[in-house]
Write a structure and sequence with these properties.
Number of helices: 9
CATH architecture of the largest domain: 3-Layer(aba) Sandwich
Bound molecules: cytidine-5'-monophosphate
CATH class of the largest domain: Alpha Beta
Oligomer: single chain
Mean pLDDT: 93
Structural class: alpha/beta
Largest sheet: 5 strands, parallel
Number of domains: 2
Order of helices and strands: EHEHHEEEHHEHEHHEH
CATH superfamily of the largest domain: P-loop containing nucleotide triphosphate hydrolases
CATH topology of the largest domain: Rossmann fold
Shape: globular
Length: 229
Amino acid sequence: MATSSAQHIPVIAIDGPSGAGKGTASMLVARRLGFHLLDSGAMYRVAALHILRSGLKDQPIERIVEAVTSMRARFDTSGDDGVRVLLDQDDVTLELRTEETGGMASEIASEPAIRSALLTTQHTMRQLPGLVADGRDMGTAVFPDAILKVFLTASAEERAARRQRQLNQQGKQVTLESLLQDIQARDSRDTNRTVSPLKPAADALIIDSTGVSINNVVDHILSVWHERR
Ligand code: C5P
């Protein structure tokens, strides 16, 4: 739980499934308000990459948790392009986005011991003047006292199409069908796990971004934020 001294620091929690536009929306909202940004998915991804790189994938969970707890990862949010991530001084920002790392992140995310290992770091990112926290359980488990909780979603087909456009821009060709299957598998794992499953908080504002521009999503979030504070 957040320490009582941090509870006066405002948090906007933006949760939702992969590809709903949370990353971009969170970055733009944080920038407009001058808030800090927590990309919790990047934390799960860097932990996954560390496990893959260290060859620990098939080791007992205690060994994996120990490695995640002691990994040397740094999240630099000072640039204009979202969060830059360093693992052992190595810039791994692009490598974090591969399907392999994302798949492994989603697997380890269902382990309660991994989730609690990352919780303390997530809480320490609650700093003045405020925090925009992007993830799956920001409003339900990590910052249940967030002033504004958004659940941003979009149809699986639209999310797969967006991912395909991103990959095409990087010169990678992947079929829509395989991306859709990946997204559905990840949704199902994230939604059905017993610990911190992906679901809207009871008091979340639900925004469906299917067919809606990211700027409209950001304006919607900011208008509700200004009404509430
Ligand atoms: O958001 P992103 O796709 O980068 O997250 C990678 C994986 O990390 C997700 O598929 C999800 O399983 C996991 N995750 C999570 N809780 C969070 C953020 C991400 O379980 N708060």
